[in-house]
Specification:
With 160 residues, this protein is of the alpha+beta class. 32% of the residues lie in helices and 26% in strands. The chain has one domain: Beta-Lactamase.
Length: 160
Amino acid sequence: MAEDLHIVQGSKTEQYEALYPQIEGLLTGETDLVANLANVAAALKEQFGWLWVGFYLVKGDELVLGPFQGPIACTRIRKGKGVCGTAWAQAETLIVPDVEAFPGHIACSSLSKSEIVVPLIHQGEVWGVLDVDSVALNTFDTIDQTWLEKIVTLIQPAHV
């Protein structure tokens, strides 16, 4: 397990290329889901400095707040509601350049301007989502989508 995160400057792609193996190292040999979610959230927040990085886990018909880094957050989100609930319902990554323009956006923080939500999928079922918020508009793109989708495949759900 790595003890320190090596922060890399450069293009977004270069940052992800350097961060990915570090996250892989953090997760190798650790089976505790909460520990792994916490370390992934911390690594992403440290590298990119986004406003909020965290996980919501499916519990019944709601997403329930899991490990995160950033300001306090909404605790529960219903399926199909807001960006997180919609990404869960559609089982696909959503990139929102301007959260104010997203129908039904749930404003957990008024500081959030753009967002990306990546579903965590195991055996065809969404078991959680990675939610990332930025204080700037248009922060996230297909580079983030590609790398964040790759990163979340490293995380195994607790019931495996």
